[in-house]
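Hey,
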Amino acid sequence: MDDPEVLEHKSGGGCASLFGLPFLIMGLVAVFGALSALFTGKNPGGAAAGGVFGCIFSAIGGGIVFYRSGITLDKRAGTITDWWGLPFPLSRKESKLEQAREVTIKAETRRSKNSSYTVYVVRLEGVDMQLKFDEHRAYETSRNLAERVAKFANVRIHDYSGQGQSIREAGTLDESLQQRAERLGEVPAPPARMPDGCRVVHHVEGDEAVFDLPRPAPGCAILSVTAVAAAAIGALAFGNVPLIFFGIVMFVVACGAVPAALARERVRASSRRLLLERRLPLLVRRAEIPASELEELLERAGCVVARSDRRTLTFGSGLKAPERVWLKGVLTTILSARPQS
């Protein structure tokens, strides 16, 4: 039975163990083969080399299969224990729970020889303390972990996952915009007026406000197609590259870049939901966050970001900064209002 006074987060095992299992098996087979050769006196030099090889592989495989680590928060004892072992704890480091000040979410880039990707790292930080809980490629997974830790430790969440940052205090981590407005006793006022030259076209359909956003600048799409075309011309002029190869590359780039340049965004907002429609040629993609679950509406990284615990919506990359601020303000007003019964 789970103890409500203890929060434990463990790492290791699972898929990592399956990855290390072949190394462990190969190493053990090599070690047993070497021992057998030594006992029978057959090729002792080869047996010794095989034994060394087997020990190395066994150590690597065993480390991957059996390595475990974890962080345990104990309210009853008032402690935070950071441990690792194989698989039982071999090393422990203890801190006071009262030292914790905040949980942070930071976007970090991981690079390998042929690729790179972004992970969202969750840490518990405080006085002389920085403990990494985990990292995930999916922001929502890291966000949910951060909320679980922050609620237990009764600390705020400091989110650095994009340009700019946001802070959510301990008592408001699951608070939607509607609940926040109810707690404060008022719905945020909308912006006084639209910015000059605002390109957002808006109207009302039923109980929803509809916002048609301008397309992003097609510069990236044009640059991609131009770069491939220039490479094709250069290769054909000075090299011996088949034309069909560049035809295929141009087709693939055009299939990705051209629809992106032609896509339009439509945002529908009411006291019930926030709905984002991306209108591509021959296709409309829709994503929705219920207003009762919407916890954050931010203007950052050159776009508007809407977040719940289950989904993140990003839109408005074709807007100028004053237009994004205005749109965020209007949406905040609409989505903070309680539905009419």
